[in-house]
Amino acid sequence: MKKIIFVFILLGSLLIAYTSSAHWFAHSGDNGFDTNIKEHAYPSPNSYGDSARYFPLKIGNKFYYKYNKVIWYYPNAYTYDSGYYVTRITDTVRLNGNLFYHMNTFLGDNTLHYLRYDADSGYCMGYNSYDSACNYENRLYKLTAVLNETCGGQCGQYNIQKHCIAIKDTTVFGLQSRVKRFHINWGGTNGCSFETFFVKDIGVTQYIYFYYDLGPDMTSTTTYTLIGAFVNGVKYGDTNTVGIKPISSSVPDKFKLYQNYPNPFNPTTIIRFQIKDSRFVTLKVYDILGKEIETLVNEKKSPGTYEVTFDGSRLTSGIYFYTLSTGDFKETKKLVLLK
Length: 339
Known about the structure:
Largest sheet: 13 strands, antiparallel
Strand content: over 45%
Shape: globular
Helix content: under 10%
Radius of gyration: 24 Å
Number of strands: 21
């Protein structure tokens, strides 16, 4: 009889646990990034070394984002700005006795350029030359954080608490991995909040910025979503059409490829082109031997004028060529990378 009672108690406990877990996951998919997430939450990471994989730091790593800014004037929403955004790791530098990786910018923060992973604390650290109170370093994200852990809040400019609100299995670019989701609130209902998604072996896959107090009944949401990347020598997702920015929707009277600017350049330059009717367009970069280096545009475009950013940070100094091809039109120009 005691054994039967024990079995019923055990089965009841398992049923309650399963129901609670299913309820949590049923209400956790409102972030717009649930890509094949499995119903399993991890209370803690494997190790500090393993957690460094949530933000791969290596020269040459490059991340391509699609961003979209929406202004909410209730009950209506308007797209204020959208486009593409590229962040890359170009080199390393020793600052304050530590080795930092140099990035052109970290998402949404044009003041943050030097980052490192601290194996002792498990934090992603950012160098801040103005923050002597924190020994010129700020704790950004604790990549070893366990579920529901509050971290950060060190001192100085980045004295903000981060909350690890989810750790789940996910699939990104066909890679089965794990995602950690951090939430930051700054200023309450009259301030702003952030959500950052770190995927192991990929990096930041989504960054969402909410601003609450634009005016009466007005808020804004800016979302950066990773659409492609080069991470540790591996290519993920779409890196071909990133950075194409419409300059004018006026219909040109001819096809034209402009000279890049600046030229010479290091490490980025802008290439502008115009097309007079809707058709498939390619824009490719070649080395001096005619070997294809990178495809910048490979899609059908509407009539108008466009520009795209070419990043030569992984290339050596020298002469390169870029070619615009569309139907029977083809034009090539020379660019010079000078490091």
